[in-house]
Amino acid sequence: MKFIVITGGGSGVGLAIARDLSAHNQVILVGRNEKKLQLAKETLGDNVRYVAGNLATISGREKVVDFIFKQTNHIDVLIHSAGIFPTNNQDNINNNLLSHYYLTTSLQKLFDNSRVLIVTGNPQAIKMAPICELQLNDMMRAAWAVTHKTLLMHLLADELAASQTTVNSFFPGDVKSDLMPYTQSLTNTTVPAGKLLALDAKFEHVTANFFDDNGQTVKLSAEKYNKSVAVMVLSNYIPELKA
Question: Any transmembrane segments, and where (predicted)?
Fold first, then answer.
């Protein structure tokens, strides 16, 4: 039985992944909406616990981290499914980048031969969108989010390598969620790649890879996405990287 933490676990992609994993594993759901988390726990059963906190804030992360440390001394899998469709630049940075980075590094002592998974966007967008610091409209903010999450994968894969912890990212497919009007109208509520990448033995030593919604590797440009570029770009948002 694995110990798994899923952010954004009260609805949408996170809940779909939790549904697949909670039957035979201990799962902590993290989210902002306590009512949604409570309903998810009631639906999924006794293997599920939850903690409500805003991961985009320091106090919210501290609350979540403190709860998790009281529940376990080891995390097998951390899945970053939380995120927003941003309407301004700072919300994008706080919710879709810094929340992932700081929660992961705050839990680092609990990782040993563990897996970290980052839910991200469409493979074509990640391949084609330039790494650009401008966020002038919704499309540019969406491109910023998926490219910077991919760079974050490379950064964390390097930072967690000493603990034999892998860091990968994946596209969950088009899944019904409250993220935006388009996703609210979808009917799909399954994310098979989540369970596959979290548990399958063939991914045990695979790190810094991006996968599609079927769990197949998506080849990305090594010149565009690598550790050096990640440090250079993400140091604009994470002061510790400049030290």
Answer: none
When divided into structural domains, the chain yields a total of 1
Distance CA 227, CA 151 (A): 7
The CATH number of residue 51's host domain is 3.40.50.720
Residue with tokens 């988390």: 37
Pairwise CA distance, residues 119 & 146, whole Å: 9
215 CB neighbour count, 10 Å cutoff: 16
CB count in 10 Å sphere of residue 1: 8
Query: Along the 243 residues of the chain, how does pLDDT read in single tens digits?
Result: 999 999 999 999 999 999 999 999 999 999 999 999 999 999 999 999 999 999 999 999 999 999 999 999 999 999 999 999 889 999 999 999 999 999 999 999 999 999 999 999 999 999 999 999 999 999 999 999 999 999 999 999 999 999 999 999 999 987 555 655 656 655 656 899 999 999 999 999 999 999 999 999 999 999 999 999 999 999 999 999 986
Q: How far is CA 32 from the centre of its chain?
A: 15
Question: Domain range for residue 118?
Answer: 2-241
